[in-house]
Design a protein that fits this description.
Strand content: 15-25%
Structural class: alpha+beta
Oligomer: single chain
Number of helices: 4
Largest sheet: 5 strands, mixed, barrel
Helix content: 40-55%
Radius of gyration: 23 Å
Strand order of the largest sheet: 1-3-4-6-5
Order of helices and strands: HEEEEEEHHH
Length: about 160
C-alpha cells in the first residue's frame, strides 16, 4: 500500500507547491531571456526605427576589415553634413563597393544600416531569444502552443532578416 495519497490524476497531493515553484522559476527564466533579447536589440533598433532628428544618408563602402567597413557618407536628411569616413560595424551582408542607406549614431562616426534590412537585423537578438525561450516554455512550463508560437516567431524573424540582408 502506497504511503502517499494520490489525486485522481496520479500526482501526489503535496506536490502543488513544487509545481508552482517550477512554474514560477521557469516563467522567470523565460521572461529574463525575452527581456535580455529586447534589451540587446533595442540598443541598435532605437536608432534605426526612430530616425526623426538623426542624420540619414548613404555610404559607399571603400574598405573592409575583419569586423568593420568604412566609406564616405553622403547625407539625405536636412541638416546632415557629409563626412569623409564613417564606420559600419558588423559587416554582415556589406560588401566593398556597395552603397547602403544608413543612419548615424548621435555623436560619432558609427553608421547603422537603415530600411527594412536594418530594422530586421537590429531585432535578430530578439529572434534568438524567442527561440531559446520557446524551449523553456515547452519544457519547463509544459505550454506547447505558446512555445510553438514563440519558436515560429523567432524563426520567422531570423529568416526574414537573412532574406532581407
Amino acid at each position: 500500500m502506497p504511503s502517499a495519497v494520490r489525486s485522481s490524476r496520479g500526482v501526489p497531493r503535496g506536490s502543488s507547491a513544487l509545481r508552482f515553484g517550477r512554474f514560477a522559476a521557469m516563467g522567470a527564466v523565460a521572461s529574463l531571456i525575452l527581456i535580455a533579447g529586447v534589451w540587446a536589440s533595442w540598443g541598435t533598433a532605437q536608432h534605426v526605427m526612430l530616425t526623426k532628428g538623426r542624420e540619414r544618408g548613404t555610404v559607399e563602402v571603400v574598405r573592409c576589415a575583419e569586423d568593420a567597413c568604412e566609406g564616405p557618407f553622403r547625407p539625405l536628411s536636412p541638416g546632415s553634413q557629409p563626412r569623409a569616413r564613417v564606420v559600419l560595424d558588423d559587416t554582415v551582408a556589406v560588401e566593398k563597393g556597395g552603397t547602403y542607406t544608413v543612419v548615424l549614431k548621435p555623436g560619432g562616426a558609427e553608421a547603422l544600416r537603415s530600411g527594412p534590412a536594418g530594422v530586421l537585423y537590429a531585432w535578430v537578438p530578439l529572434g534568438g531569444a524567442l527561440l531559446l525561450a520557446s524551449v523553456v516554455v515547452a519544457g519547463g512550463l509544459l505550454r506547447m502552443r505558446p512555445a510553438w508560437v514563440m519558436a515560429l516567431a523567432g524563426a520567422g524573424l531570423l529568416t526574414a532578416a537573412f532574406v532581407a540582408l
